[in-house]
Design a protein that fits this description.
single chain; 2 helices; Bacterial Protein-export protein SecB; alpha+beta; 4-stranded antiparallel beta sheet
Length: 143
């Protein structure tokens, strides 16, 4: 089974706090949910999804859309209809595609409505070495 395309159909975001209000210890929960799997053609199926980044009491970002899958659609749709779930390998592939497509979009939306980034930003800690003269090759430079 392969992923053919990703399409976002709905983007909703809301900030509950006032501008300048500072909240400490913000918890950001991510959730991707496949709501429906349906057959589109003999070789393709559509998985409708909802991705949510929930900022505890501060706001949320919700993205809905669909992923088009190509492959053995009969087995996928039959499994979905009987159990409401997908085989683990396909579920991993679909949820990874959802998250990898939605996180960058959520990052831009969070910036626009002044919410923190939906994932932890990396911390850079540059420490001065004891003997700088032994350096033979240039290394990375951080500002």
């Amino acid at each position: 089974m392969d992923i053919m395309s990703y399409e976002a159909s709905t983007i909703e975001a809301k900030r509950f706090t006032q501008q300048g209000e500072h909240i400490t210890n913000i918890r950001i929960d991510h959730n991707s949910t496949v709501m429906r799997v349906s057959k589109v053609s003999e070789q393709t199926a559509s998985a409708e999804f909802r991705f949510t980044a929930n900022y505890s009491g501060m706001g949320y970002i919700r993205i809905e859309g669909s992923i088009l899958l190509k492959g053995d659609t009969d087995t996928l749709v039959d499994t979905w209809d009987s159990s409401g779930s997908m085989p683990d390998q396909i579920a991993n592939m679909v949820h990874n595609a959802i998250v990898s497509n939605c996180i960058p979009t959520a990052l831009l939306i969070a910036r626009d409505i002044r919410l923190p980034p939906p994932f932890p930003m990396p911390r850079i800690n540059v420490q001065k070495k004891r003997n700088e003269s032994k350096r033979t090759q240039p290394g990375p430079e951080f500002a």
